[in-house]
Design brief:
Creatine Amidinohydrolase, Chain A, domain 1; Pept_M24B; 6-stranded mixed sheet; Creatine Amidinohydrolase; globular; 3 domains
Length: 605
């Protein structure tokens, strides 16, 4: 019998925990690879609670439960998760381990799935519980799965070859680089469990996770350049076997645990952020020596080679034209009334599909009208769908997956009234212009080699800070090449709060987003986002190596929301130069009314 209500599902889980002798259980948004986006089979938290965000966890005790989310989801969690069933806990202000210790009975046994948590998390929470006489217990099978009767099966889609013409380097060349690293560090092998790392290293892609073209698998890379790929047999095609060659042994995914158990005496590198607790435990039990070390694929994957860089430019040109057609359509249709967040998102999808090159969206489109624009990670559905009202701010954050690149763009626009009577408020124009100034400051930044993302973050925030306001998310994240739209290790964000990647030195070839914003809860939100490529800068008379950014995204920014008086002459010059380039890139791809709209949108400010 299928349980339709989240209350019934919570009750069923508690009964299952009682049968197992557990006093509680932790349910994260996670899969066995610590992926950001996960397949339907792993959506345990959404099934249990109704929460649709991409980060969060629930703790279920006998008579109390709590949702742990960060500042991005404070509004969303209240809309989607029943407050009568779950407390809302904001991290890092509220520690999960401390909450469990305070609310669970003394001597409690709290279960966790070691395939869905890192070793660091298990050690930290385990210590917090031990102080209260409780115990964190690794379960052999997930109790949520036991009560989730209609749980989807993992995707059976075949793994696909990603041609060298898009990858820019052969898999053999990449594996040799990893082998050199292993030998230099004194490791026999590395466990690579991050799905995008496996995809990049082997030049393969897949369709197992929505929005990220990866294939469910594990990989063990050896110090002689060979590798073992653990993947479901039905996903292996003759083309894949031929592509991988003799140096990559293909084994069933179900053999991964036994392979780890057979590594006695080996020194094995395991990434502490992507290698789950179960991997460390299996290696330790086998008599191997697992060492917490960053995945050797992550940095080379982040530094795009010339082929990947050029592919990104082509993908951005194609995607930019689709978004421009969409913004033209929006400028005509939305003021008439009758459009909604869902209808607008569907129209944007139409324009991207019309390119003939779209493989998937790179994430769920954030189509946010009015107050929903104040939710940075809002996701529209049938229940939340709002009309797009004339005389309001509308925000759209979206992206596409193409064989030659991954895109991510946000535009915030003013939806005019039919008679042109409604104008943005002075506050809205002020906030938009301050966000724009921060965006320009990042785009124009020049900095010495060795600079990290946290050192640039204040460039974007300074103008908002001057008005006594700020935004609660990072300024920029890394982006993959036909891979994850959020890719480490680089990012631009405040150094505080334990954000991974803010200490990573930026290198030429790294792609980042540039997306400052402002959000007024319950009223409106603003974000301007382009992708930028880190490049070398030659400064006459400069000492040492210097870097800057090349803009990759070219789509008009809404001039209606700009307060020109707040811009300097240099900022106005940037605007005019940016829109001249936008016109040059997009005009050959547009015609008719869309071209006329572009010409108007790209006029000098």
């Amino acid at each position: 019998m299928l349980m339709q209500t989240h209350e019934a599902r919570l009750t069923a889980l508690r009964e299952e925990l009682k049968r197992r002798g557990l006093d509680g259980f932790v349910v994260p948004i996670s899969d066995e690879h610590m992926s950001e986006y996960i397949g339907g089979y792993a959506q345990r938290l959404a099934w249990l609670t109704g929460f649709g965000g991409s980060a969060g966890s629930a703790v279920v005790l006998k008579d109390r439960a709590a949702m742990f989310i960060d500042g991005r989801y404070t509004i969303q969690v209240r809309e989607q998760v029943d407050g009568k069933l779950y407390d809302y806990c904001l991290v890092p202000q509220v520690s999960m381990g401390k909450w469990i210790a305070e609310n669970a009975p003394e001597g409690a046994k709290i279960g966790f799935d070691p395939w869905l948590h890192t070793k660091g998390w298990a050690d930290q929470v385990g210590k917090a519980l031990a102080k209260k006489g409780s115990e964190l217990v690794a379960v052999e099978s997930n109790p949520v799965d036991a009560v989730w009767a209609d749980r989807p099966e993992p995707s059976p889609a075949p793994a696909l070859v990603h041609a060298d013409e898009h990858a820019g380097r052969s898999s053999a060349e990449k594996r040799a680089e990893v082998a050199d690293w292993l030998k230099s560090e004194g490791y026999d092998a590395a466990v690579v469990s991050a799905l995008d790392s496996i995809a990049w290293l082997l030049n393969i892609r897949g369709a197992d996770v929505e929005r990220t073209p990866v294939a469910l698998s594990y990989l063990i890379a050896h110090d002689d350049g060979t590798a073992e790929l653990f993947i479901a047999p039905e996903k292996v095609t003759p083309e894949l076997e031929k592509h991988l060659g003799n140096a990559v042994t293909i084994r069933a995914r179900s053999e991964f645990e036994s392979a780890l158990s057979g590594m006695k005496g080996k020194s094995v590198s395991v990434d502490p952020d992507y290698g789950v607790a179960a991997i460390f435990r299996l290696l330790e039990d086998a008599g191997a020596k697992p060492v917490a070390e960053r995945d050797p694929v992550i940095l080379p994957k982040a530094i795009k080679n010339p082929v990947e860089q050029e592919g990104h430019r082509r993908a951005q040109e194609r995607d930019g034209a689709a978004v421009a057609r969409y913004l033209h359509w929006l400028s005509v249709a939305a003021p008439k009334g009758g459009e909604t967040e869902l209808s607008a998102a569907a129209k944007l999808q139409e324009f991207r599909l019309a390119t003939g090159a779209l493989k998937d969206n790179s994430f769920d489109t954030i189509s946010a009208a009015g107050p929903h624009a104040a939710i940075p990670h809002y996701r529209v559905d049938e229940e939340s769908n709002l009309p797009i009202e004339p005389g309001s701010v509308f925000l759209c954050d979206s992206g596409g997956q193409y064989l030659d690149g991954t895109t991510d763009i946000t535009r915030t626009v003013w939806i005019a009234a039919p008679d042109g009577s409604a104008e943005p408020s002075a506050e809205q124009k002020d906030r938009f212009t301050r966000v724009l100034k921060g965006h320009i400051a990042i785009d124009r930044a020049v900095f010495p080699q060795g600079t990290n993302g946290s050192q640039l973050d204040a460039f974007a925030r300074q103008f908002l800070w001057q008005a006594g306001v700020d935004y609660g998310h990072g300024t920029g994240h890394g982006v993959g090449s036909y891979l994850g739209v959020h890719e480490g290790p680089q990012r631009i964000a405040k150094a505080s709060g334990g954000q991974a990647g803010t200490g990573q030195e930026l290198h030429a070839g790294m792609i980042l987003s540039n997306e400052p914003g402002y959000y007024k809860g319950g009223e409106y939100g603003i974000r301007i986002e382009n992708l930028i490529l880190t490049v070398k800068r030659d400064i006459p008379g400069g000492e040492g190596e210097w870097l800057g950014f090349e803009t990759l995204t070219f789509v008009p920014i809404d001039r209606t929301l700009v307060d020109r008086s707040l811009l300097t002459e240099e900022e106005i010059a940037w605007w005019n130069d940016y829109h001249a380039k936008t016109r040059k890139i997009l005009a050959p791809q547009l015609d008719g009314e869309a071209l006329a709209w572009l010409e108007e949108a790209c006029r000098p400010l």
